[in-house]
Amino acid sequence: MKILPGTAFYRYLSITFFIVFPFISNAQDNSLTIKGRVIDADTKQPVLFMQVALFKPGTDTPVTFSDTKDSGEFSLSAPNGNYELNFYLIGYDKKTITDIVLNSNKDLGKIEVKSENQDLQEVVVQTSKIPLRADLEGITINPEANMSNLGGTLLDILRNTPSISVGDDGTIALRGSTGTNILINGRNSSLTQNLDQLPASAVDQIRIINNPNARFDADAEGGVIDIILKKGEDLGTNGSAELTYGTRGRMNTGARFNHRTIKYNVFGGYNYRDWRDVGKRTSDRILFEEDERLLQETDSESQNIGHTFNYGGDYYFGKNIISYEGVFTTNVDSQVNTLYSQLSRNSTGAPILDFVRRNNETEDDDGVDNAIIYERTFDNPDQSFRFLASSSYRNQYKVQNIDVFTNSTEATEENLTGQERGFTDEKRNIYVFQADYIHPLSEKKKIETGLKSILREFDNDFIFQRFQEGNQDFVTDPNISNRFIYKDKVYAGYFIYAASSDKIDYSFGLRGEYTNLNTELINTNEINKQNYLNLFPSAQVLYKLNEENSLKFTYSRRIDRPRPWRLNPFPDITDSLSIRRGNPNLQPEKIHSLEFGHMLNRAKSSFTTNAFFRHVDGQEDMITIIQDGISYIQPENLNTAVSYGLEFIGLGEIKPWWNISGGLTMFRIIVDGSNVENGSINKGFAWNTKLTSDFKLPLGINFQIVANYDSPEIEAQGRDLAQYFIDANVMRNFFKDRGSLALSVRDIFDTRRFAGENRTASFSQDFYAKRETRIFLLSAKFNF
């Protein structure tokens, strides 16, 4: 995107991004009207959402401004006088009409604007109203275009995003890979540990970069998901308030504002969330050699109460911008899980053991992000410098009180045979320092370079206690209790050379990362140290066939370092016969990723096709190991994994009253797990699709259907079964589109569930999990 020099730059800042409310431009008495219709100089098609501003000559603050409608038309009102008219839209050259004498209503007729040659590094989002937009690096999602996100969280947005699948435990998979680097405002943040605590209403955009170039961290197999929070860009004072209320007393409410002048911008937002849920999970495990069958059923109830604040500001002086961005979250999560277990002989059905475990769990979760950003522009609009320093802190304190009812099928007081409790105190700190510089070599060539340091420290202190009848007190079990400390430092530098012409844009980059990792188990004094240096080349090429069609090619070498919780050997003691634990011996995955695609962009539609290939050495997957009748579920490095497939992403206007957008991803996975216990080579085909269909009905009513389907997908020891659901939404705007009322029905056919199966030579296991997913939500929103 070109940075406009001098006065033009400040004018551009004054009116960039969102729709400006009509009452601002109509607030003057005795005003005259100036109108026109903006069209593309090449295609002659209307240009929608172009921002139009009327200035007094020689001033930096617009008298009034608005944006063009779907037809390309605009209309502004102003008093009698002399003016100049400016037109702005990313992707188009700025246009100015001078010497306008407004002494009567004026119709300028058709006004042509010319497209600028887009740099291949840019991510272009021309308007917040378009649901998604594809470019060279991936896609950009506008959450507000999908009404199924109303009243939801960041996890709900991702659940409705093409190429992404969301697991039962909130795990994010991108094109079948659970290794994703999730950022907030382009920064590494500890707040991404629980995406269900960030409200959807606080999210402005989500960028999905499947094959990032050298500018981005090489971390994560699947790519980058960058969550851009709202900060406010409209000139003047603006804000919004919203309230969502749904079945089971679910509630999500919030407000946000911003005040912007030519010199500064301040913004703030607050969300309150009270979310309640119920669910059921069943598991059927058979051990062949032991002739044992374990049937388990878990009933769960949960409630999450959370507060989220995001705030900050920008100060503009000369060619400099200093910004501060902050996020604070505090949440209390309460849940009760009651596990019923029946152990019997598989061959005869003879009972061995019945027991119940009731886990009453409370978790306090606080987090804060702070970032200072300095940006410098130069006389050459293609030259820039940016420096960022950020800190992210999160503290989770969890208390588990577990009642055990042995030789019983009911959790009653008289059947109580034991008590256990666990205390988890986890602190996470992430510090990021980053500097990026872009220097043009000529009008069509430039270099980019930068340095980055990421410093992380996670401290997990877990205490497990059992009640002893002898002394009538809880006693700490040193065999389970432990303190796990994880520290890593990643120092990176990169260099990119980029060039463009009328037909082809390309860039080649190289990134180097030095990793220093240390983990320590305090009570056993086990220390794990890893130090390694890696180089990560990348390439991006865009070939423009004509105005509508272009071809793209991207390549990157990547690394996926084990997440701290996967290195942490602490067991999850909720279920004593099926225990989850980490593996401190995990090694990073090494990935080669290629993509070849075609992009078609027309006035009322766009369509992108991508063919992709990924080869992973040391693939990380969850493995089940049976020891003494207990299932231990833990991550392991497998030999290799290969995946390849096709992806289709598009949106278009079928009729003036009917739009469709969405995506289809199809891929084949081959996993070589022959190096692990009872492992083998597993292969299979999987696909997922997301489809959103919007209808404009009479009386100003908008109706939307959102459909999601994820096919069965293989893992090292089995597969996950298909999941699918359909949401329906209806909305109507009021008060000249400043207010809206919406009714949403999530999972209208109550079909969304998670199920899977594991098959090895020593055991088989089937599981099924169903939460309350058919939810009715009523949402009201007002913009001011």
UniProtKB/TrEMBL annotation:
Matching InterPro entries: Beta-barrel_TonB_sf, CarboxyPept-like_regulatory, OMP_b-brl_3, Plug_dom_sf
One cellular component term (GO) for this entry is: cell outer membrane
Pfam families the UniProt entry points to: CarbopepD_reg_2, OMP_b-brl_3
Superkingdom is: Bacteria
Positions the record marks as coiled coil are none
Entry annotated with the keyword Membrane: yes
* Residues annotated as domain Outer membrane protein beta-barrel: 376-780
Which keywords does the record carry?
Answer: Cell outer membrane, Membrane, Receptor
PANTHER family from the xrefs?
PLUG DOMAIN-CONTAINING PROTEIN (PTHR40980), TONB-DEPENDENT RECEPTOR-LIKE BETA-BARREL DOMAIN-CONTAINING PROTEIN (PTHR40980:SF4)
Q: What is this protein called?
A: TonB-dependent receptor family protein
Q: Which organism is it from?
A: Aquiflexum gelatinilyticum
Lineage, please? Bacteria, Pseudomonadati, Bacteroidota, Cytophagia, Cytophagales
